[in-house]
Amino acid sequence: WVIGDKASDVELGRRQGLGAVLVATGRGAGQRALVAAARPGDERVLFAADLAAAVAAILATRPGAGGGHR
Fold first, then answer.
1. Which of 26, 20, 14 is nearest to 50 (CA)?
2. Are 24 and 47 in contact (CB under 8 A)?
3. Cβ count near 9 (within 10 Å)
4. Pairing mode, if any, of strands 2-4 and 45-48?
5. DSSP string for residues in 15-61
6. What is the Cα–Cα distance from 58 to 65, expressed in whole angstroms?
7. Which residues contact 7 (CB under 8 A, 6 or more apart)?
8. What angle do CA 5, 30, 6 make, to 5 degrees?
9. pLDDT given at position 63
10. What span, in angstroms and rounded, lies between the C-alpha atoms of 46 and 16?
11. pLDDT 10s digits, 1-52
């Protein structure tokens, strides 16, 4: 998983076959629409308010954990 606050962080993760979380802190809030438009429906791209929420979202994607957060 890659966690970052820029669209390029998300692209880095996805190009490497990893999941990615865009956090709203830093530049992330202004980049959410860009990421959503570039990766519509991509289940391995998550959005989170901050680092703690990103970790929780990643852990929620584990088998038996009940799915991811959007």
1. 26
2. yes
3. 21
4. unpaired
5. HTT--EEEESTTTHHHHHHHHHHHSTT-TTEEEESSHHHHHHHHHHT
6. 10
7. 22, 31, 34, 35, 38
8. 25
9. 86
10. 16
11. 999 999 999 999 999 999 999 999 989 899 999 999 999 999 999 999 999 9
- Residue 29: exposure state from Cβ atoms within 10 A (0-12, 13-18, ≥19): middle
Which of 68 and 32 is assigned the larger pLDDT? 32
- What's the alpha-carbon Rg for the chain, to the nearest Å? 11
| pLDDT digit string, tens, across residues 53-66 | 999 999 999 888 76
Q: What is the pTM of this model?
A: 0.86
Which token pair is 16?
């490497």
